Amino acid sequence: MATVASLLSYPIKGCAGVPAHTALLTPAGLAHDRSFMVTSEAGVFRTQRRDPRLALIRPEIDTAGEALTLHAPDPGPDPLVVEVDASGPPRPVDLFGAPYTGIDQGDEAAAWLSAVLGAPSRLVRVPADHHRVTDGRTPGTSGYADSCAVHVLSRSTLALLHERLGEKGAEGEEGARAIPMERFRPNIVVDGWDTPHTEDRAHRITVGDAELAYAKLAIRCAVTMVDQRTGTRAGPEPLRTLAAYRRAPEGGVAFGTKYAVLRPGKLSVGDEVRVTAWGEPEI
Fold first, then answer.
1. Can you give the C-alpha Rg of the chain in angstroms?
2. Closest CA to 124 of 140, 113, 115
């Protein structure tokens, strides 16, 4: 039986994940997932691709989404509690060149983030009228995620990567070190799918009270080369190894799967992950 091994949300896009034993799945993903975003002063989103130190910022958010606490690594500024502004005037923000809006969370949060990242920054929240439509085979919505609401990855998929990383190359060089699951920033980690990349074929699944539908493959980027514990680039792995066996038809390398939410509900670690519709994999 396949089960949920872990649940992780990322309240601030690009910052550290928050594990949970039980979480509410909303139409836009796990509650509060990517509902905040760090931007430049001009409103362009910040990403670990360019600002790997984002990984070192650990957010905490209360259940109601009214208080966001920011933690920095040592040595760094003291934790900052941000009283979330959910109804202030929206300002334009840029996410991958697409125009959206965000509610600015004030100068104190901006100064704190600027000090940690070493670059002028602002913090914005998704406004109530954020009507984003995500792409893929099943349309949906999300906050400031790169694309779809939920990213699913199985332990067997990661185990196969580790097997490939451990193989000696043609010249006999030692295999690369294992890559932690946190590098791939999943929302739901599945245990019990013995065949790697089963998530590519699981086109409709039920978990707890919720139901998800396949949207597309998760195309990986340079974020996977950022050590999430040091906030530094540690490439070229895993992209170099993935390029040898996980080339996507439309370009890039794929690892894990993105889903849209068909039915919101409550999820818990240990819940059964039941596949109700299978499909052909894209790779």
1. 19
2. 113
